Amino acid sequence: IQMSINIFKKDDQANGDFNNGEILEKKPIGFPQDRGKLKPYSNLFYWAHAWAPLTDSIIGLHPHRGFEICSFVLKGEIEHYDTLLDKWITLSKGDVQVIKAGKGISHSEKLKKGSEIFQIWFDPNIQESLYIDPSYSDFRSKDFKIKIINNIESKIIQTNENQLSLQSSGIEIYEHKFNNGIHLIKLKDKSYHSYFILSGTLEINNQQFTQGDFLIIDNESNLELVTVNNAKVFEIVSPTSLDYKTYAEIHKIS
Questions:
Q1: Tens-place pLDDT, residues 5-57
Q2: What are phi and psi of 94, to 5 degrees?
Q3: Which is nearest to 236 in space by CA: 179, 178, 189, 173?
Q4: How far apart are CA 218 and CA 170, in angstroms?
Q5: How far is CA 95 from the centre of its chain?
Q6: Are the CB atoms for 24 and 17 separated by under 8 Å?
Q7: How far apart are CA 165 and CA 107, in angstroms?
Q8: pTM here?
Q9: What does R_g of the chain's alpha carbons equal in angstroms?
Q10: H or E, element range at 183
Q11: Contact (Cβ atoms closer than 8 angstroms) between residue 80 and residue 109
Q12: How many whole angstroms separate alpha carbon 59 and alpha carbon 111?
């Protein structure tokens, strides 16, 4: 089978901002109104990389329903408030928060100056999740195991052991640090492997990818890549087929 690799360079991704540019965003997977090239796929509905370059800034209180909304702190520190806990909580680099929006919850986020996050929306069976009570959990960086195999250091954030207790099925999440050199990666069958380049340079099939680039690979059992500048990559593995219709499919936005 021909390798299927879809490439979304940083410059091709949808843009977003809050508070007159105090918070900036690049969106590998945006909302329909963002007019990005990539639509929701698998049970990945939305993926934004957000940062606050110059000052602390707050995204005001806003509601969510149904989705599982995960925030991954990449740099610095953020504060989070939601109507369930009714208090502000601080999260630091490497920490993860999971909101199961369920019947409905509202939350607000403050990004501290110099901080960066991913906010990723996973799409559970919306016809079930809309009827469950909302919940909020946070996970500290030290909670996640690190494995080093073949010059790859992998932080294991979510596997089939379901550390984050996601209802969205089949999700695996990793943060990889590659030593410089050639790496042969075994890929999971019947899965999308979605990669966001956090730093360094990664080369596949003689094509180079750098910080902010986004790739999706499927239909391949092995991947050979070359890394320089000690590349760091965020990976999400998700199923190529699901046993339920996603929100995106129901509303014909996939």
A1: 899 999 999 999 999 999 999 999 999 889 889 999 999 999 999 999 999 99
A2: 90, -15
A3: 173
A4: 15
A5: 13
A6: yes
A7: 20
A8: 0.95
A9: 18
A10: strand 181-186
A11: yes
A12: 8
